[in-house]
Amino acid sequence: MRASFHPPLAKKPVLLRSTARAVTPFGGLVSLLEFSHKIGLGPKLSETMPFSHTSPNSIPPAHTLMAFLCSVVAGASRFAHSEWLRSDKALHSMLGIDRFPGTDTVRNLFLRFTQGTVQAF
Fold first, then answer.
1. By percentage, how much of the chain surpasses pLDDT 90?
2. The Cα angle at residue 81 between residues 20 and 121, in degrees rounded to 5
3. I need a labelling partner for 72 at 20 to 30 A (CA). Which of 4, 26, 29, 91 fits?
4. What residue segments make up the domains of the chain, in order of their start?
């Protein structure tokens, strides 16, 4: 099987193919990520996010939120469960991100939201 897939947070498509060994246990997220690409969720999150980071080393807030959403869909019920997806490089490619945010990054993103920023978002 060979197919191309458009990550929601990247410009170029990713090639999906079967191998003899398991590469990622989160391959089922492809349909969710393709749907989010079709509806333009990644760019919409980037343009409507009420704040941004100034550090060149920081992970963009839209990437952090998308990573959190994937964690929840994959079964995470706590912020610490997002670590399940952090070491999966194939999932990072499917998302279109270079680095997956850690638990503290996800938690700090949600701490920045106040009532005003929630309404603006």
1. 40
2. 110
3. 4
4. 2-120
Torsion angles phi and psi, residue 15, rounded to 5: -85, 125
pLDDT: which is higher, 31 or 21: 31
Long-range contacts of residues 21-26, Cβ cutoff 8 Å, at least 24 apart: 23/90, 24/88, 24/90, 24/91, 24/94, 25/88, 26/70, 26/74, 26/85, 26/88, 26/90, 26/91, 26/94
Q: If we measure between CA atoms, which residue out of 109, 73, 70 comes closest to residue 91? A: 70
CA 2 to chain centre: 23
Residue 1 predicted with pLDDT over 80: no
Site of tokens 């194939």:
90
Percent of the chain with pLDDT over 70: 96
> What sections of 15-102 are H helices per DSSP?
30-38, 41-48, 61-73, 89-95
**How many beta carbons lie within 10 A of that of residue 28, not counting itself?**
10
Place of tokens 């997220």: 29
